[in-house]
Amino acid sequence: MDLHQTYPGLEDLRAAAQRRLPEFVWEYLDSATGQEATKRRNRSALDQIGFMPSILHGEQEVALNTRFMGRDLPLPFGIAPLGMSGLIWPDAEGHLARCGAAAGIPYSLSTVASQSPEDLAPHLGPEAWFQLYPPKDETIRSDMLDRARRAGFSTLVLTVDVPVASRRERQVRSGLTQPPRLTPRLLAQVMRKPRWALGMAHQHRHEGGMPHMRTLDKYVTDNSGGLSSTAHIGYLLRTSPDRDYVRWLRGAWQGTFVIKGVLRAEDAAPLEQIGVDALWVSNHAGRQFDAAPASIEALPELRAATRLPLIFDSGIEGGLDILRALALGADFVMLGRAFHFALAALGSAGPQHLIEVLSKDLEANMGQLGLQNLAELRKLKVRRLPALTGLP
Q1: Do the Cβ atoms of 373 and 74 come closer than 8 Å?
Q2: Residue 284 catalytic?
């Protein structure tokens, strides 16, 4: 089967993922918080960023490689962390880590993933990132950093935009708890998706057929609570960090250090002074705060405020969106939901197919703009397009 004929875009992978996943798993992956206005705002704001096509450039070869944080990478995008990836598809973290390593792009493991740093150590490439939800206890904190370092993670990403648990009402209504428990309602959904169910049962046959947050096993003696899915066991260990916390991490981590969840331009200078290596512009894809601006709206102000490399996420759905973010000042783009849509749609073949889809879309749109490489994006004039209204 030619996957590019059947799944030419991310929307095709998203639709297939929804068909293959139990409802409560789909709601976990796809939902945002509140009325999901921030999630919609991300999409709308990206759609309003336009460029004037350029003609008469003759035959062109398009290069997608980029230099980012001192490293030469083949593509300008990577795989963002997603908590409990293993709930989406069996061995999700393993599939994504192997794909990232093979493609030479960053893969990020969440603190609250369903596999631990040690589980993924054999599968990591040189661009392995560990995303940290900040433990309050200094001993636990030090141990997590040591585990990540020994497993082969070279970049530490501190997420700072989750000071408290968000509500994610769609997710709560689905009946999902943490750790996941198969209630009669959820079991009925699972029975209608046998491929997901059999794969999950095989992957987690010693854990009752359902994944849990394996990195935290070492620090939690009782994880039987049945907490709300938005207030999982990780919140019992973590704190809301301040600048002193960031300074401590900068001193403790010898590799590349990134701060994720930055929207305010005035936060850039203090983080520069602390010595972080990059800022990650993100509104958590609308999953935390429903009155936040679109991440793409915050990007130009942050670009003007700092010389640090900027990573971008939130709302990216194709190569054109990647170009939009790069043109407005991002140095690199990360996608989270998209890679999990691909994984749920096509299993182990999904992430590599998505990389090909995004690469082809980048090449097609760069051709329309007369660009031979990504560095030329900075010379383009960005045009504000009218908001799309009245369309399905």
Answers
A1: no
A2: yes
